[in-house]
Amino acid sequence: MTEKEITGIVVTHGNLGEELLKTVRLIVGEIHDCYALSGSDLGDEKVIESIHDILKAHHAGRAVIFVDYFGGSCGASCVRATRYLDDVKVISGVNLPMLLDFVTKQGIMGLDEIVDHLIHRGQESVRVIEI
Amino acid sequence: MVILFRIDDRLIHAQVVVGWGRRLKPDRIILADDQVSSEDWERELYASAAGPDFKAAILSLSDAVEQIGGGVFDSEKVFLLVRGPAEALEMLEKGLEAKEINVGGLHFREGREKITENVWVDGKERGLLRDIAKRGITLEARALPGDAKSTINSKVV
Q: What does the alpha-carbon distance between residue A88 and residue A98 come to, in Å, rounded to a whole number?
C-alpha cells in the first residue's frame, strides 16, 4: 500500500502562488493535493484559518507549505499556523523547480526526505547559465 | 534617532524590511510590542524577519520609550514599529516624542472601515488615531516610500 500523498500549500504575496501552480499544471498536467493562498490579501488570522481548513478538509496528515519570502508576513502566518504540527514543514524561497519536484515526488518520498530534496533542488536551480 | 515611526499590524515583514529598509537604510528596526516582547518564540520569529541587513530590538512599549528617550539609539537610524494606534498612543503618553506617524498598514478585518487602500479602522481605532492627531502629529498613510504622500488627519476627526 502506498502512503497518502503529502499535501502542498503555496502561500505567497499577490497571486504568485496561484500562478506558480498554474504553471506547474502547464508543465506536468493535473496535480493533486496542492493549494495556493494569497497571504497579502488575507489577514494573519485568515491565513492561519485557511491553512487549518485545507489540512482538515483533506485529512492531510503530512504537508509542506511553501512561502515566497523568508521574513515576510505570509511566512510568519505559516510558521504560526504550524507551530504545534510536527508533520507540516514550512519552506521559504519557493521556486518553480522546487514545485515541479514536489508534485512528482509527493507520493513517493517521506516528509523529511522530500523537504531536504526540495531545498537542495531549489538552491541548485539558482545559478549562472553558461555554456 | 527615529527616522520612521510606523503603525503596521504585520509588524516586521517584507514591505518594511525591503520596501522601506532598502530606501531609508536604517541601522536598526525596533519592534515595540508587549505581546511579542514577552514571549521568546514570538521574539525569535520577528527578529529573524529583520534579516541580515538590520539590527533588531524587540522591546516592551515602556522599555522602548525609556531607551529611545534615554538616548540608547541616538547614534543609530531607527525604524520604530508598533502594531496599532493603541500602542502608538500609549508610547506618546509615556513620553515618546514624534512629529509624524506613518500609518502604513492596518489591514482589512471584519468590522473595519476603509480609510485608504492599506488603512482600515474600526470605531475605536479611529478614535485613537484622532487622539494622536490632536497632539499635533501628522498621520500619513503611505504603504511604501515611493507612494504619493497622503495625510489622513482630516479623515479621523
A: 17
